[in-house]
Specification:
single chain, mainly alpha, F1FO ATP Synthase, 91% helix, rod-shaped
Length: 82
């Protein structure tokens, strides 16, 4: 009986940890994209003639961050459903 209760508690903690991980991944992605956007705007303000290059690099970096965050959230949700 005790091992069954321990397994149920461990499963509950695993689900809570997966939910916490999904939230942490989302917050991290938001902070990262905000930092990229702010830095890009400062760079454009300093050198407006290279705006196109800066914007292209910013969009690529933001897309990579979004991809990693989406992957982390999917892994966390898969952990919840097991």
């Amino acid at each position: 009986m005790l091992t069954l209760l321990q397994a149920a508690a461990a499963a509950g903690l695993a689900k809570m940890g997966a939910g916490f991980g999904a939230g942490l991944a989302t917050i991290g992605a938001g902070l990262g994209i905000g930092k990229i956007g702010g830095s890009a705007m400062e760079a454009i303000a300093r050198q407006p003639e290279v705006k196109g290059s800066i914007m292209t690099n910013m969009i690529i970096a933001a897309g990579l961050i979004e991809g990693v965050a989406l992957f982390a959230v999917v892994v966390c949700f898969l952990a919840i459903n097991q």
